[in-house]
Design goal:
There is one protein chain. The chain is mainly alpha-helical. Helices cover 74% and strands 0% of the residues.
Length: 179
């Protein structure tokens, strides 16, 4: 009788375990590799760009098999695990980049980073350019889009706050609101 690997013997749950183990280990390796170099970057955006590249480089050895991992992670019974992995990744990358915010935009920023990272990882699966140069360009564009969206969000929040104060003052000056 031929010897079967534990993955083959235990089926897809072992495959899921290997995938999550890889993802956890890759995040740990990202932190170790990035710790020495993060001080070289001034902005959170540049740190996030660097951290995403470091984490994506962790996937290079398995990138041609990664679509299989994505298929396993996208199965209905595994979606919550995949979402938790992605949430942990985006939170950890923002933390490593120095973001300690606790405002309402905390969720929006991490969601945008998760989407940016995931899109870049999927793009990387089909990238055949030398040293994944097309992936790095794709990531850079998505990071810039994220930065633009974040700036727009900040402007919208500031406008809304100012508008609310002005509107309140107008209503108060007309006697509709007593201070």
């Amino acid at each position: 009788m031929a010897h079967r690997s534990s993955v083959e013997a235990n089926g897809i749950n072992s495959g899921l375990s290997l995938i999550t183990h890889f993802m956890d280990r890759a995040l740990d390796e990202t932190q170790i590799e990035a710790d020495d170099q993060l001080h070289e970057f001034d902005s959170t955006t540049e740190k996030l760009r660097f951290l995403c590249r470091v984490r994506l480089r962790q996937t290079r050895p398995v990138i041609r098999r990664w679509p299989e991992a994505a298929a396993i992670l996208s199965q209905p019974q595994n979606v919550s695990i995949a979402m938790r992995q992605l949430a942990d990744l985006s939170s950890q990358l923002y933390y490593l980049a120095g973001d300690r915010s606790s405002r309402i935009d905390w969720y929006a920023k991490r969601s945008a980073l998760a989407a940016t990272y995931l899109a870049s990882e999927l793009y990387m699966c089909e990238d055949h350019s030398p040293n994944f140069q097309a992936t790095w360009s794709f990531l850079d564009s998505r990071i810039e889009n994220m930065k633009t969206a974040e700036n727009s969000t900040v402007k919208l929040v500031n406008f809304t706050n100012q508008f609310s104060r002005n509107f309140f003052n107008i209503l108060a000056s007309w006697g509709y609101i007593h201070r």
